[in-house]
Write a structure and sequence with these properties.
The protein has about 350 residues and is of the alpha/beta class. It has three domains: about 80 residues, Arc Repressor Mutant, subunit A; about 100 residues, 3-Layer(aba) Sandwich (D-Maltodextrin-Binding Protein, domain 2); about 90 residues, 3-Layer(aba) Sandwich (D-Maltodextrin-Binding Protein, domain 2). The protein is about 40% helix and about 20% strand. The strands form three sheets. Strands 4-3-5-12-6 form a five-stranded mixed β-sheet. It has a five-stranded mixed β-sheet with strand order 9-8-10-7-11. A two-stranded antiparallel sheet has the order 1-2. α9 links the parallel β8 and β9. α1 packs across α3, α2 packs across α3 and α6 crosses α12. The chain is elongated, with a radius of gyration of 25 Å.
Length: about 350
């Protein structure tokens, strides 16, 4: 589907009761896919190698063909009409399937393959596990490239189905839907961490000291409480002081290195930081529930050799980052991830 479209030909008007593909210029569908993706005529033109005027002409033809404005001006730029939003996902799926059919790719050989995969996840996976994944990738598949995107729970099922995202790595709750498959990669537990030389923490961290310290909470939405707070409440213990809430896993350990706060965070995350920063790591002085890390994909790609390799690669990268991890081949029962 990539490359230049030299001409956009005139097309008969769309008849919803009798769709005749022979009467439709399929280049217009490529243009429509770019317009729906970018919601911007100039960027859509660049995406498929057209001039801006050619893309504007294509948009005019599409509006006439589909009897819908498709893109209209909003406060922040162009926005999709309801009809355009309805078309976006099935059109992308169809074009991806056509690409795959025409590609006729040979069997996937990681050592010699030249390909890009897109993985959607959150910064916990990126900071704790991506370095090991890249090291393994360099040994197994030096010609394979990765694009890592921030995952949004409400959108990734459609992205997986269309093939725009190859794999999603998330913590429960995991989105479910037609065709979605999932595999538990490992079960993660928590540790507590303070900076070395902390004035109130020496060789041990007891519960009384822990409760009285000021805490950092990783909270993606910037509100609420974590699993620690729920456990404290269940035991009738006084609430802790949450001195700082941060939305990203990557920031929290760095804050601890320059403060007297304590952080309760996933073990793998802290293991990655404790090698480079002066941190003291302790077992939590109260039981904090563990959580699962899940990889999710669409069943359309179950039998694809490249996708099979990708899923196995992610599982191996998890093991390389933490050899003692409890990995499983599959799991459909997952637990809600606690905050900390």
């Amino acid at each position: 589907m990539h490359g230049h479209m030299r001409r956009i030909h005139e097309t008969r008007k769309w008849d919803p009761d009798e769709v005749d593909l022979a009467g439709i210029n399929l280049n217009l569908l490529v243009a429509l896919d770019a317009l729906l993706k970018e919601a911007h005529v100039t960027r859509a033109a660049a995406r498929v190698g057209l001039t801006q005027s050619a893309m504007s002409h294509a948009l005019g033809q599409l509006r006439e063909l589909l009897d819908d404005a498709l893109l209209i001006r909003g406060r922040g730029g162009m926005v999709l009409t309801p009809r355009a939003e309805q078309l976006a996902a099935p059109l992308r799926r169809g074009l991806v399937e056509l690409q795959r059919a025409l590609r006729n790719e040979p069997a996937f050989e990681p050592a010699t393959a030249s390909r890009r995969f897109t993985v959607a996840t959150r910064d916990y996976f990126g900071s704790a596990l991506l370095p090991s994944a890249l090291e393994l990738l360099g040994r197994e598949a030096p010609g394979v490239d990765l694009t890592v995107l921030h995952v949004e729970n409400t959108t990734y099922p459609a992205l997986l189905e269309s093939g725009e995202v190859d794999l999603v790595v998330v913590t429960p709750p995991v989105e479910t839907g037609p065709g979605l498959r999932q595999q538990k990669l490992f079960t993660e537990d928590f540790v507590c961490v303070v900076r070395k030389g902390h004035p109130r923490v020496r060789k041990t961290l007891d519960l009384d000291t822990y409760v009285k310290l000021s805490h950092v909470l990783i909270s993606p939405r910037g509100d609420g409480v974590g699993a620690v707070d729920r456990v404290l409440a269940q035991r009738g213990l006084p609430p802790r002081r949450i001195a700082l809430r941060v939305p990203y896993f990557l920031i929290a350990p760095l804050v601890v290195t320059r403060s007297d706060h304590v952080l309760t965070a996933p073990r793998r995350l802290i293991a990655a930081f404790s090698q480079a920063y002066p941190l003291q790591v302790f077992a939590p002085p109260l039981p904090v529930p563990s959580f699962d890390m899940i990889q999710v994909w669409h069943e359309r790609f179950d039998g694809d050799p490249a996708h099979q390799w990708l899923r196995g690669f992610v599982a191996r990268a998890v093991g390389a980052s933490h050899p003692g991890s409890r990995n499983t081949r599959s799991s459909r029962r997952v637990r809600r991830t606690p905050g900390s």
